[in-house]
TrEMBL record:
Protein's organism: Breznakibacter xylanolyticus
Subcellular location per the Swiss-Prot or TrEMBL entry: Cell membrane
Protein name: Uncharacterized membrane protein YjjP (DUF1212 family)
The family this protein is said to belong to: Belongs to the ThrE exporter (TC 2.A.79) family.
Membrane disposition: Multi-pass membrane protein
Pfam family, one: ThrE
Chain ranges passing through the membrane: 120-136, 172-190, 202-223, 235-255
Domain Threonine/serine exporter-like N-terminal: 16-251
Length: 257
């Protein structure tokens, strides 16, 4: 029978790898990055890891070179978002694990530090995303008034989405409500002639909802051979695009434009 300390070691490593994989998955990393990160850390501790990645769960099996120790477990992942600070932080941490021979306790402390990093203040996020919407409006040919309309519509749409996510609404419903809010505000000005029949503000006010990361990860996963994850992420992106389109369509029907 194996010594209890050895069994505890492989359990600790396995649970740690699952936690790292869960952080990466919920932060917007693709399957190739997650698998490379897990393998890099497991090999540093002298173990071999096999990882099954699905859209909402991770399953890992960890063993040593002689197969005398074995650990297997499954962990559900949090709802997906985009947090490149977490992704890059874990990537830097793994190289320090390899080069400096970090212990499990050091890795856990670094993960806790990364998870506790503050996000940007909400007002700053709303303002800069709205500025990005106004910039897109300008790129599409809008004038300064169209840019102000796009700014206000984007700001309001993102605010509605954040509030609905905070109240645990379905994320697709939150995207639909944000799209409808933004398109109703920008469509009002287009409908009543304030923007001189320009459609630039109307068409660019929902661009902040475009699912760029899911679609890029979908393509990346399929190119890398992770077809199941690629298809699921692609379908997720398509449902988001459908929710955006539905909000735009409803606004057009309301204003008959």
């Amino acid at each position: 029978m194996e010594h209890p300390a050895k069994i505890a070691d492989i359990k600790n490593v396995g649970n740690l790898l699952l936690e790292i994989g869960s952080y990466l998955m919920s932060s917007g990393a693709n399957s190739h990055r997650i698998r490379n990160t897990i393998n890099r850390i497991s090999q540093t501790f002298g173990f071999h890891a096999e990882l099954l990645i699905t859209h909402r769960a991770l399953m890992i099996s960890v063993s040593d070179d002689t197969d005398s120790q074995f650990f297997s477990s499954l962990k559900r992942t949090s709802p997906h978002g985009v947090n490149f600070r977490m992704v890059s932080g874990i990537s830097r941490m793994t190289w320090r694990v390899v080069e400096e021979n970090w212990t499990i306790e050091q890795i856990e402390q670094e993960l806790a530090r990364l998870a506790a990093l503050p996000h940007f203040p909400r007002l700053i996020t709303l303002t800069f995303v709205a500025l990005a919407g106004a910039s897109f409006c300008r790129l599409f040919g809008g004038n300064w008034f169209d840019m102000m309309v796009a700014f206000g519509a984007t700001f309001s749409g993102l605010f509605i989405r954040q509030e609905m996510i905070k109240k645990h609404f379905n994320p697709y419903l939150a995207i639909f409500a944000a799209s409808l809010t933004a398109s109703l505000l920008s469509g009002f000005y287009m409908k009543y002639g304030i923007s001189l029949t320009r459609e630039h503000a109307f068409t660019t006010s929902v661009l902040f909802l475009i699912p760029g990361v899911p679609l890029i990860n979908s393509f990346s996963d399929m190119i890398d051979g992770n077809l199941m994850n690629g298809i699921v992420r692609g379908m997720n992106g398509l449902i988001i695009a459908f929710a955006i389109s539905l909000g735009l369509l409803l606004a057009k029907l309301i204003y008959q434009i």
